[in-house]
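Exercise 7. Predict the joint structure of the components listed below.
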Amino acid sequence: MFKHTRALQFNAKPDRPDPLMARKLQEALGGQWGEMTGMMSYLSQGWASTGDEKYKDILLDTGTEEIAHVEMISTMIAYLLEDTPIYEQEEMIKKDPSLAKVMGGTDPEHGLVHGLTAGLTNPNGAAWNTGYVTSSGNLLADMRFNVTSGNLLADMRFNVTRESQARVQVSRLYHMTRDEGVRDMLKFLLARETQHQLQFIKAQEELEERYGVVVPGNMNDIQHSEYSHVIMNFSDGEGSRAFENQIAKDGQMFTYQENPEAMGEVPKTKPASSELHNDQG
Amino acid sequence: MFKHTRALQFNAKPDRPDPLMARKLQEALGGQWGEMTGMMSYLSQGWASTGDEKYKDILLDTGTEEIAHVEMISTMIAYLLEDTPIYEQEEMIKKDPSLAKVMGGTDPEHGLVHGLTAGLTNPNGAAWNTGYVTSSGNLLADMRFNVTSGNLLADMRFNVTRESQARVQVSRLYHMTRDEGVRDMLKFLLARETQHQLQFIKAQEELEERYGVVVPGNMNDIQHSEYSHVIMNFSDGEGSRAFENQIAKDGQMFTYQENPEAMGEVPKTKPASSELHNDQG
Amino acid sequence: MFKHTRALQFNAKPDRPDPLMARKLQEALGGQWGEMTGMMSYLSQGWASTGDEKYKDILLDTGTEEIAHVEMISTMIAYLLEDTPIYEQEEMIKKDPSLAKVMGGTDPEHGLVHGLTAGLTNPNGAAWNTGYVTSSGNLLADMRFNVTSGNLLADMRFNVTRESQARVQVSRLYHMTRDEGVRDMLKFLLARETQHQLQFIKAQEELEERYGVVVPGNMNDIQHSEYSHVIMNFSDGEGSRAFENQIAKDGQMFTYQENPEAMGEVPKTKPASSELHNDQG
Amino acid sequence: MFKHTRALQFNAKPDRPDPLMARKLQEALGGQWGEMTGMMSYLSQGWASTGDEKYKDILLDTGTEEIAHVEMISTMIAYLLEDTPIYEQEEMIKKDPSLAKVMGGTDPEHGLVHGLTAGLTNPNGAAWNTGYVTSSGNLLADMRFNVTSGNLLADMRFNVTRESQARVQVSRLYHMTRDEGVRDMLKFLLARETQHQLQFIKAQEELEERYGVVVPGNMNDIQHSEYSHVIMNFSDGEGSRAFENQIAKDGQMFTYQENPEAMGEVPKTKPASSELHNDQG
Amino acid sequence: MFKHTRALQFNAKPDRPDPLMARKLQEALGGQWGEMTGMMSYLSQGWASTGDEKYKDILLDTGTEEIAHVEMISTMIAYLLEDTPIYEQEEMIKKDPSLAKVMGGTDPEHGLVHGLTAGLTNPNGAAWNTGYVTSSGNLLADMRFNVTSGNLLADMRFNVTRESQARVQVSRLYHMTRDEGVRDMLKFLLARETQHQLQFIKAQEELEERYGVVVPGNMNDIQHSEYSHVIMNFSDGEGSRAFENQIAKDGQMFTYQENPEAMGEVPKTKPASSELHNDQG
Amino acid sequence: MFKHTRALQFNAKPDRPDPLMARKLQEALGGQWGEMTGMMSYLSQGWASTGDEKYKDILLDTGTEEIAHVEMISTMIAYLLEDTPIYEQEEMIKKDPSLAKVMGGTDPEHGLVHGLTAGLTNPNGAAWNTGYVTSSGNLLADMRFNVTSGNLLADMRFNVTRESQARVQVSRLYHMTRDEGVRDMLKFLLARETQHQLQFIKAQEELEERYGVVVPGNMNDIQHSEYSHVIMNFSDGEGSRAFENQIAKDGQMFTYQENPEAMGEVPKTKPASSELHNDQG
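Solution:
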């Protein structure tokens, strides 16, 4: 269960309106790697977690914080859209041609659909969807197959990725504006994404130590291991040879196959048999 | 440019048809973390890469291999669908009630739309889409902002995640069947996903060493660093306190904030001004 | 900003597992009218609201409650999936044919992707997306055009609809199970959806009284009013004539047009002019 | 079955081309609340209706009219796109910088994909989809559960919402242009949306009178009624207290809970049991 | 403008309910190649057409007919869903195990969302969307570039494809049932799809005769014609050599390139320049 | 299995950067009819094909070539985005107002998400998805129903359509730029699309000769043939009468029905029976 405080977690007020920046900030709200993705992934993973309380709790803490980030960015976007001219302004444009840039570059749905507030989309207006979310479940203690360590570690790796991609985008957004109010909020998000990267990396390393670095840990005897450390060269670039004879994180050595051959057959699926249908009238 | 060999990279032939398993294998083909996602992410990243030849090449090698995996799984699905009764079989059902299970559980579009071959969807028939793909670009040598190291490392982390999530799902698929032909192919995929995890982890570690562990590396002086190593406790679980005073991978120590307070204001966006529109007729 | 309590708002524990019911409950979680839609619509509307504190607050209260409902239903689904056989069970099926029903009717992604926990989809596995959400903005005090009353009232009407559609579906779900644990949770949701319907109806009526029943209120002098109270009969059914001479909620009388005629021209858009392009080489 | 008249229902011809306005009008055609949504919702509801002829007929009348609105807006968009320069016009831009605005703000797919005619998308090019449509079925006479009144009333509420959201957007579109031809069509749509709001409100009120205001009407004895009239205060705003002791539309009084407590348990789903799988080889 | 007749274009009544067949028929309603796709493609093309009245009219005639087909299939699905047990029926299942098949194979949203009527989706519940529709515009008389013939012919080819794919699926549906009522409707659809294939083929042939077989007709002098009749052999199959020296429909002869070489350079995009950003603070 | 050559199939280098043209080229990459659609349709059809080696091979050859086209266009887009100013450039804009056009018209995700390289979307940022792909299966030798000829021919017709729509769009793109580097690549694509149209037309004609022109060929005795050659006039246009008495490609004559009547009943689906549910508690 949740409770809401009206005050924001951190400042989210620009020095002045800027509808183009509002559009760009939609990426941090409703893009593939935006705050909605963090919020729903961490909450879902936290609710699904049945294992170590430590990991369950940090997932729920962080997921709950992300709702506040969704709130902050939504607020910032609304401030940035204040005074945006959504109605026709022919005479004003003649006086100030920079309005033309705004007319061409603003998201028309900001005014038309959302009344100059944030939508839950990316800057191109694509609806955020849960195809961006990852939560692979509660099989934590499935000791027989130990699929476990796999899925929790796999989700932690997703979370590190989410925070990394998001911090790259927030960095790019930072350089796209000089508004000190916008930058103030972005500096806070940068810091929190540092923390979230580091905490999930910490969890990831603990899990790697416990279950092994390859996810999931218990399938290594089952796989066709003769292909598990081979760099296969399917293109004419020479760069990947640099990995040859290097030691992989699991302690084994990479080999290099210059010219990997097809080992399977040419497939021969048969046409659908007509005999099957001989009771049709 | 690409060339195609008709023989498969590895065996992809089941011992016998099984349309329910065919449906499940669609996850490895057209699901969020399936082979289509690997193929288009690595190829896109490889084509976008302008930096170290080593990384560009391993991306293109691996992306090219993934097309072969798309081919293998498509072939396997077509074999598994052979002889599936898509037409009404009332009398046959009476003789063999297990056909009823097939009737209820088979993807109806396998027969109706794809003529008993694979579709490019997940097991629930959701179309694969490029919202699953990640490729964050060629800013590799952007020395001033060094956004660089960030985006290449962020993409490598995505790739490790892709291979981890995929290997968890392939492990689950392995346990969902006893067909030795299907298992043979899955054992090969497990091995290749081991290799791909390890090679991307290797690249990731090299990049972390060069640019720092927090992505992107050059924003640490800009961020509000007083919040960059603080575990904030937004839920009443006590588990996340376990991280307190631990050393993060960047060498600094995590602190713990039991009761994080709202530091921002209550937002007061103003209603859209009517003055703006005073030239309307 | 938000805080999370680990205890659920209300009981969400079934008497026994039932993976088919788990699948059906996905509608209440990630369907068009499910709790995700309520949560993100009310929070977005609340954050966008600049007007009467009363409405802003009830939107934020209710949006925050809906996060707890997302949590409850996610938990219930995980409980219902406990012990679901996702791996092949040929011998068990022979002993208990009802497992065949489960095999055919269960969402394969529950096991394969989510490790027997909830996904953020509907029962057919379609990803929830923000195309289901409505929030039309902060133009509340736009006195000149008074678009205002319109959009807040329009959003309240959406909210009443959301709670009505959701309560119809929860009622249907109630009759689809006899599990007293599941029913206990549904009885609570039914009650809350009563409250939410009634509170939004209350707000809606107040706004209708203030601004008029037709949304938005200030365009009535602009519209072509000769067509604003005419039932036009475009089909050969006779039922709609029953509205003739009845008094509409704005106090005017409906008229009936038996055979509405086309009043516009036959369109004659011209082909794209080739003159425009005469500087092409 | 349908017949088509080439003449439009009403005028749909602008005074002059305007490709930016063409893009904005896409909202009224292929947006979430555009005419496609009205058309397919009302037709689907009408075809599904088994009950009172009066409601079935007005749904089919209105759905049929909406096809004509889709036609009118498609025609208007094609007129507005006439003469749009989709080919490179460097020298023309030098003479008339306003072309630059057009180049930046026009939907590139209008020229490239649709040859300067309408697409079935919103202004950001998102494909219209049936996730926007609502039609909840024919259970009208299901007397035992009386789910009935619920779903028809719920659909009528959706229809009132559709017409309200659409009229807000058409009002905004009206103020975004001064073209008298465009405005003429919008004035007609405003009038029809008045009629459609009023007719669906009429139907809604009749149904509320017959079955009660809370949808569906027959679950009130089943729900946990102690929570059905309680305003729960989950945020620190004080506004929602204004509803306290007010009379809800069903005649009961709202109470106010200042600090709602979690009434459920902390969930303890168990990890997936490994015993289940002990027949794996 | 449109008018609606309540009587259906043709019979659409099954001999008995069959909810699995109802699910499969969704393909013909809301699948990629279903009637919605025909309806919206032909209407859009007809409204966009500015050229030969003959083609404009047949597009509008056929598009209007397709609305009636949407109506017929929606009706058939509702009939097929009559009496479907959507509520729990434990005791009935014990008496009739075939109900178990229905429970597993029925679309759960048919009951839960649509109250036992049709949804606008495919059998896997994927929402129909306008990404399936094609309408390429009104450049018919663009004589200078003659892009014209191209786009009208390209659309006619799409229409022939639509009717062909749809008729394949309707044929498959025909064999999936023995219900004479369902088959009666399908026999009618098969006939109409014959007519629609033949009429669009007729139009296609006339346009090919007028503008040439390669679309669009006027770019043949611009293209790099040395590559315009070469079968390039990118795979190790030998089958495509069979086209060698055959005469293409434009009268020229195909040649065969056994081993096509890469003619382009290795791409060398440069990293984003940092100089660009030297005004950042 | 596939191998990759780093050199491109053909030149893909512009004379100078142009981020607006980069955006437009996204249509040829990730639009409905772009190269991704060709690639995945032909490969899927080739893998599914069980029949004539000739057709299987040309599908795989062409599908493999299309991967190279995806590569070329991705490369071209990255070149066109070189030096695009994604960071704020207020002073530079003052010096060169044409930058304002770029700011408004560029895809913001090109810089923000993809670091100035291609995304797998259309110019409006809509994710490419497999709902654009067609592959109808391997029923080639299904002699009894001969559904066969149908689906292979239907897919060939799709392929001809794909190449036609794509060539129309590439022609439009050609006229949207004067950059000789871009045009050089487009001239090559135009030539290849000529070849692909002609080869698929050849295959289509052979299949028509073998199985008949109406797809699928073996349902003609089953359909209600009295409706299979009738032009039905559902609109008041007179154009379609021009087909009357013309000979269709199957040798039969079209007739014309001026005023087609509804032949079906008014549907009377019954409300869901309440008796079914009488075991509810």
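Discussion. Chain C touches chain F at residues 175, 178, 277, 280-281 (CB under 8 Å).
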